[in-house]
Amino acid sequence: MKKIIIYGAGTFGEAIFEFLKKHGYEENIIGFCDQKASDIKTLHQKPVWTFDEAIKKSSFFIIAVGKVYYHEIEMLLKENKEIQYENIQEFIKNNFSNNLTEFEREFCGIAHINAMDNYFNNAENDDSLSVFWGENGEFFNLFSLLNLENIIELACGRGRHVGQYVDKAGHITLVDVLEKNIFFCKNRFKNYNNISYYKNNGSDLKELPDNSYTALFTYDSMVHFELMDIAKYLEETYRVLKPKSMALFHHSNNNYDYKASYSTGTYGRSFMSKDLFAYLSYRVGFEIIEQKVIDWGIPKLDCITLVRKN
Questions:
Q1: pLDDT, averaged in runs of 10, over the chain (310 residues)
Q2: At 296, is the secondary structure helix, strand, or coil?
Q3: Which residue, among 62, 49, 59, has the nearest Cα to 6 in the 3D structure?
Q4: Mutual angle of helices 227-240 and 274-284, in 10-degree steps
Q5: How many CA atoms lie within 13 A of 294 on its CB side?
Q6: 203 closest CA partner among 240, 228, 182
Q7: Of 53, 49, 52, 58, which Cα lies nearest the Cα of 13?
Q8: What is the CA radius of gyration of the chain?
Q9: From CA 120, how far away is CA 290, in angstroms rounded?
Q10: I want to staple 134 with a disulfide (CB 3.0 to 4.6 A). Which of 48, 130, 226, 244 is the partner?
């Protein structure tokens, strides 16, 4: 196996390191390359080099930066004809047997564990929460149509939304793929007796019973999900909801690049669109009640879709 330099020593680069370490490639990683090498110096006991230093190592580069900077780094590497490099998806396809959907699911989890503290601290501030719970907002208006008697929150994270509706709900089932998030929520909401917890596998709700829930919603997480996983979740949501119950999904509207995923898409947005989500929902039996395209500084980046089980 070739020697590897991870180009990018930020959150994304750390996540790639943790993924490769988990799969037995730690010894192949000889270091990182980053514009801030003089400040970072070492990461995970590996040296962090400037680009001029790194190109002398005769190593293979994995580009570990987000979509915003990816092409800039790619052009820099292309200018040096002898350098070999790939993005993380290309590397996975060429070196691993697991498929890209499985990789993206696992990688997204690893990245969120690494960035968890900073992300959730920022996400819980009043400005961030007001986007979802401001009384004049699109999210709040559609959420207010849900029957909270027996509701599922899918991909709950650390439960930052729970406080906004827990006193209005009969029973809540918090679902997340990360054990760390479930543990955090159990401790955070230990004084509530109307909450259950379920660590799932990232693609289904198989431990939840049929025709039993009055609503499901998910905010800020499904934007990263793979299309195949979304299709499966829609099937599962239809299965577990009672007839005439509704579900509210916050998903990506990034249909500009069919290769887009958490690891390569703008702001981690996977390939999906308003119309494609409606199609998938309709195909499993849902009626589309309403869809709203959402801007986050980037026009039409996301969408929220309200569906009802017939």
A1: 90 92 93 94 95 92 85 90 89 80 89 77 84 93 98 96 97 96 96 98 96 97 96 98 98 92 88 98 98 90 97
A2: coil
A3: 62
A4: 40
A5: 19
A6: 228
A7: 49
A8: 21
A9: 29
A10: 130
Q: Is the distance from CB of 239 to CB of 138 less than 8 angstroms?
A: no
Contact between residue 191 and residue 212 where contact means Cβ atoms under 8 Å apart: no
CATH code assigned to 126-309: 3.40.50.150
Q: Would you state the structure tokens that stand for residue 207, as one six-digit string? A: 């431990």
Domains of the chain, by residue range, sit at 4-97, 126-309
Across the beta sheet with 195-199, the strand order is 195-199, 171-176, 150-154, 213-218, 241-252, 302-309, 286-294
Say what the pLDDT of residue 97 is: 65
What's the topology of domain 4-97?
Answer: Rossmann fold (3.40.50)
Give pLDDT, residue 92.
Answer: 87
Which one-letter amino acid corresponds to residue 186?
Answer: K
Query: How many whole angstroms separate alpha carbon 160 and alpha carbon 293?
Result: 23
pTM: 0.90
* pLDDT score, position 14: 92
What is the three-class DSSP state of 6?
Answer: strand
Closest by CA to 157, choosing from 127, 103, 191, 115, is 115
Assess contact for 263 and 104: CB atoms under 8 A: yes
Both tokens of residue 274?
């308003």
Residue 39 φ then ψ, to 5°: -90, -35
Beta-carbon neighbour count of residue 44 at 10 Å? 16
